[in-house]
Design goal:
By secondary structure, the chain is α/β, with parallel strands linked by helices. The protein has 13 helices and 15 strands. The chain has two domains: about 150 residues, NAD(P)-binding Rossmann-like Domain (Rossmann fold); about 220 residues, Dihydrodipicolinate Reductase, domain 2. The strands form two sheets. It has a nine-stranded mixed beta sheet. A six-stranded parallel beta sheet has the order 3-2-1-4-5-6, with helices on both faces. This is Putative dehydrogenase.
Length: about 400
C-alpha cells in the first residue's frame, strides 16, 4: 500500500458507487485514490472505461480482491449482499467500508461483526455519513455532556421520503422481501434509525404498526408508526413513510432539564431550564401556577432558549466518511462509525417489522433473531421470486 494513499475498489458502479468514484477521481478525498471497479453488469465496463480510463475493471469482485489493485473496498450493492461481501473482503485482508444498512437481518450482521472482530488488523467501517452532519455532531456533544439531564422521551417524524410508484417500478427487486428485505425501514430511513439510537441510546423494546403496500403497489412497508422503550421510563416514537409529498422532518428530545427540537435537520431550538423540571414543579404554588397560565410570570426566570441555524452539507458528508476511512487505515485516526455499530439500526428496523407481523412488543436486548428470519422467509417464499435466506 502507498504511504500516502489508500487505493479504493468500488463494488457496484450504480448511482452511489458512481458518486464515490467521481469524488475520488476528482481528488476530493484526501489520502485515497480510485484503485479498481467491479460490477457484474457488462454495460458498466464501458461506462467505467469512458469515465475512469486506466482504472482496472472486474466482472467479479473476488477477482478484484485478489488482484492486488486495491487496499480497501466499499460495498455499494443490494442490502442482502453487504454482510457477505464484507466477510469475503476482510477474509482477503482488504479493508472494508460497508454501505448502510449493515444487512437485512441480524443473523447475517452478527456473523459479519464476529468475523470482523476476529480480524482486528483489517479496518471495518460503515457509511453512516449523517454522523458527520454538524447538526447531529453538536447535538451528540450536548446530550453526552449531561447538561440537559436524563432523557424522558423523544420523537422523530421523518416523512420526507416521498417516492412515486415509478420509483418502485424501475427495478424488480425494489420494495420486495426477497430482493431488498423491506421498504422504507431498510431503504430510506436507516440513517435516521442510526442517528436516533446514537443520540438517545439503544432502545430495549419496540412495538410497531406498519402498513404494507398501503399507498404503493409494493410488498413491503411504506408507512411505519413505532413506540420504543429505552428503560427507566424513557420512551420514544418514530414515524416514517414514503407517501407524504409535502413531508415533515421534526426531531424532539425532552430531558429533565430541557428540550431540543430539530426541524428539517437544519434549525435547532435548545431550551434550558433554570432548574430540573421536577424541582420547578415541586417549588411552584397554586398561585404561581395560576399566574404562569395567565402569562403573568416571566418565563425567562424559568428557562432560556437558544436557536441555531445550520447550512445544508449534503454530499460533503460522504466525502468526510471516505476521508476518515482512509485516515484510519493510514494513521489510526478514530473511525466516525465502526462497522459493528451497524447492527443497532438493523435490529431496530427488523424489530419494528416483527412487531407488526406478530402484533406483540419485541425485546431488542434478547432479540428473537431466528423468529424474525423465519417470518422473513415466509414472505420471500410467498413472493416466489427470490431464494430464502439462512
Amino acid at each position: 500500500m502507498s504511504e500516502k494513499n489508500v487505493r479504493l475498489g468500488i463494488i457496484g458502479l450504480g448511482a452511489q458507487g458512481g458518486m464515490y468514484a467521481g469524488v475520488i477521481s476528482e481528488g476530493k478525498v484526501e489520502g485515497m485514490t480510485l484503485g479498481a471497479i467491479a460490477d457484474i453488469d457488462p454495460a458498466k465496463k464501458e461506462v467505467a472505461a469512458e469515465k475512469y480510463p486506466g482504472i482496472p475493471f472486474y466482472d467479479d469482485y473476488i477477482a478484484m480482491l485478489d488482484s492486488g489493485d486495491v487496499d480497501a473496498v466499499v460495498t455499494t450493492v443490494p442490502h442482502f449482499l453487504h454482510s457477505e461481501m464484507t466477510i469475503t473482503a476482510i477474509g482477503n485482508g482488504v479493508h472494508t467500508l460497508t454501505e448502510k444498512p449493515a444487512g437485512v437481518y441480524t443473523k447475517q450482521v452478527d456473523e459479519m461483526n464476529e468475523f470482523a472482530a476476529a480480524h482486528p488488523a483489517t479496518t471495518f467501517a460503515i457509511m453512516f455519513n449523517q454522523r458527520t452532519n454538524p447538526v447531529y455532531m453538536d447535538l451528540k456533544a450536548l446530550i453526552s455532556s449531561g447538561e440537559l439531564g436524563k432523557l424522558r422521551h423523544t420523537s422523530w417524524i421523518i416523512t420526507t421520503w416521498w417516492r412515486p410508484q415509478a420509483y418502485y417500478d424501475q427495478s424488480a427487486w425494489r420494495a420486495t422481501w426477497g430482493g431488498e428485505g423491506g421498504g422504507v425501514l431498510v431503504n430510506q430511513a436507516p440513517h435516521q434509525l442510526d442517528l436516533w439510537q446514537w443520540l438517545a441510546g439503544t432502545p430495549k423494546k419496540v412495538f410497531a404498526k406498519l402498513v404494507f403496500g398501503f399507498q404503493r403497489d409494493i410488498a413491503t412497508e411504506d408507512e411505519v408508526n413505532a413506540v420504543v422503550d429505552f428503560g427507566e421510563g424513557a420512551t420514544g416514537h418514530f414515524l416514517t413513510c414514503t407517501n407524504d409529498i409535502i413531508g415533515t422532518d421534526r426531531l424532539e428530545f425532552l430531558f429533565d432539564k430541557g428540550k431540543v427540537v430539530v426541524e428539517d435537520s437544519k434549525k435547532v431550538t435548545i431550551t434550558r431550564l433554570k432548574q430540573d423540571e421536577r424541582s420547578l414543579s415541586d417549588g411552584m404554588s397554586a398561585e404561581d401556577v395560576g399566574r404562569l397560565f395567565m402569562g403573568k410570570i416571566d418565563t425567562a426566570d424559568l428557562y432560556e432558549t437558544e436557536v441555531k441555524e445550520y447550512e445544508s452539507v449534503w454530499g460533503q458528508q460522504h466525502i468526510d466518511v471516505l476521508t476518515n476511512f482512509a485516515a484510519h487505515i493510514l494513521d489510526g485516526t478514530p473511525l466516525i462509525a465502526d462497522g459493528d455499530e451497524g447492527i443497532n439500526g438493523v435490529r431496530l428496523a427488523s424489530g419494528m417489522q416483527l412487531s407488526a407481523w406478530t402484533g406483540r412488543e419485541i425485546d431488542l436486548v434478547d432479540y428473537p433473531a431466528d423468529e424474525y428470519l423465519a417470518e422473513l422467509n415466509k414472505r420471500i417464499e410467498a413472493e416466489g421470486k427470490f431464494p430464502t435466506r439462512s
